[in-house]
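Problem 12. The chain below contains 354 residues. Write out its predicted structure in token notation.
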Amino acid sequence: MLAIRFWAAAAVFHLGLLAVCGVIPRRWLKPAARQYGVRLWALALADGVRFLGAPIVLAGLTTLLGPRSGFTTLRLISQALFGEGVLLTAVVAGALWRRRHRSLTVAASLLALGLLAVYVEAYHREPKDLQVRTHAVNLTRSPARGRLRLLHLSDLQTDRITSYEERVVSQAMALAPDLILLTGDYVQPRLEPTRTQARADLKALLQRSGFCAPLGVFAVRGDVDVDWPEVLDGTGATLLADSSARVTLPGGAHLTIMGLTPGTSRGHGRASLEALLRSAPAGDLRLVMAHNPDFVIGLAGAGLADLAVAGHTHGGQVALPFLGAPYTKSRLPRLYASGLHDYQGIPLHVSAGV
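Solution.
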């Protein structure tokens, strides 16, 4: 039913957009267009605004037929940009070439090629471009000696297990971590009900790959994990929900790991969060793990955490060259959308996600 509703909304959306696109090129095909001169650039800009505005309005209207979410709207707008947008700019480039408007022909052609290049990068190459980032955190107050290797994985959000997920787990185990931290959003179907199969296949993958670490695997729930805790049953992971676990480190020191629920990770229940952190034995290192990184806002300057890890942001659903992510779904500044940073005295690592 979800798939039918989405494709019905998509069909209405694209039919409306094709009608808009059918109007725009007509003026470029008229002989009078040759006489516009410099005004042709202004005309091109105006038509560009018309095209960009149409998908936004149509997406807002047609999502009344389909799933009502911001992601549905974003998906339809992306289809317009990389579908009708490429077609429209190619048609306009052809019309301009016939009218011998060379500079605008080059501009329209480059725009069409640029949109195609972004589409290939964003939809086909980058999603499978697994990146391993390594950061060093100096926890000088720890009585422990040597190094502790933490593996942080987040936002797998798979609708089915493929060779990519196999590679993720294989490469993770090749890093020989001492401790594994999983910060939510494990299985997420798209338009088909694949959750049950994907969940079973994920658990089978973790079990047969020996997904473990000497000091344990610890996990928290994410926003899309409606099948929590079943999604990780039988994997050997310790599941934390506004609770803690204590680990003995090499050399006799201790690490208290505190895992938060999605609500607490978003900054709700600050008093209970502080109580959880204060419950750690004196002298222990304190690691807080959660799906959403917003919880650190309430801990700034309190000295209650030695390290915090989270996911959720994806590094920004969209990241622009030189500008970064316009929107990160987090109340933290964009700087903290991914990577290791110091947030007012708390080392915070936010994974951009698998």
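Discussion. The chain has nine helices and ten strands. Students who got a different answer should revisit the alignment rule from Section 12.3.
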